Amino acid sequence: MNWDTRLIHEGQTPDPLTGSVNPPVYLTSTYAQSAPGRAKGFVYSRTGNPTRAVLERVLGKLEGGAGGLAFASGLAAASALFMAYPSGARIVAGDDLYAGTRRLLDVAETHGVRVDLIDTSDLANVRRALADGPAVDLLYLETPTNPLLKVTDLKGAIAIARKSKARVAVDNTFASPVLQRPLELGADIVLHSTTKYLGGHSDLIGGALVCRDRRQLERFRWYQNTQGGILGPLESFLVLRGIHTLGLRVRAHCQNARKVAAFLARHPKVVRTLYPGLPDHPGYRVARRQMDDFGGMVSAEIRGGLPAARRVLRRLKLFTLAESLGGVESLVNHPALMTHRSVPAPVREAQGITGGLLRFSVGVEAADDLVADLEHALG
Ligand SMILES: *Cc1c(COP(=O)(O)O)cnc(C)c1O
Asked: Hey, which of 39, 111, 164, 294 has its CA 20 to 30 A from 355?
């Protein structure tokens, strides 16, 4: 079945009770039991809620896993994931991560987990990290990365992890399952911030884990219930509603981002444009192989550093200056001063998160209007 059909039908049938084509929003904390321990499938909404259950089923199917789990945020999903690793465990992760994930790994370190951050876009680093030192329990990958749009060869990295029996989790937020399916490439776990493309309308905070095998899914279901960071029924409904148009939206995001990236790459006031769909991007070939398109995120370094970047931000009208990404409206973010402020400045600078760097979440407005807005702001 085609994606546009799957997004609307897979795992979703009219409500058996009323025929409602959308799942009812079950705003309830608890469920009546006919006798102690005898319930109709749900006992308490932290443990399970029928609206959330529909979303979890759909997420599992879209990523090709045994099932999904919906959390209160992307970071709540990540914290349930990292919670599974006890003191003494070792996690290797990419060094260009969503800054909140990096903070969470700092917390894991204070609990005795060893964390090594490496540039996973170069497989030699992955090979070295897994060969040296104590056994690695989890390889945590984000691709494309935030905000530098680095691409990791998932198949290659997963093959290396397999040899040393490390599990692999992939943050698939930037690509969405429409463009990239890590479980098909051999990963064990997929993480999403459903706040972004899956929700798609900047109107909710949510996260998800999808597991390849059922035993692992049940283990994380236990952590979800124990940690308690579950997605509420209304947000579950909104993510499901967003998923219906995910294919349409992602196509429009990709088309627009391609035009925005091509415009920025030619502009004299732009030092470098980071978009995996540009043939001179170091991850272009890998992205072409493992993604169905290149996504809606574009970063660019403005000539003249911070003052020049600030001027562009003041002059932009359609790109709203805000954190987050993946919604229908275009947003621009200054990573060094906003999303990645918590990364120590020397680390940031060394990685290329400079004062001149801007990250664009290209929305689904008309591409010509977006390019005209950028042309005016850079002019
Ligand atoms: C936003 C984001 C997260 C965190 O998700 P929240 O929903 O904000 O908690 C994790 N990874 C990536 C790539 C993100 O963009």
From this structure: 294
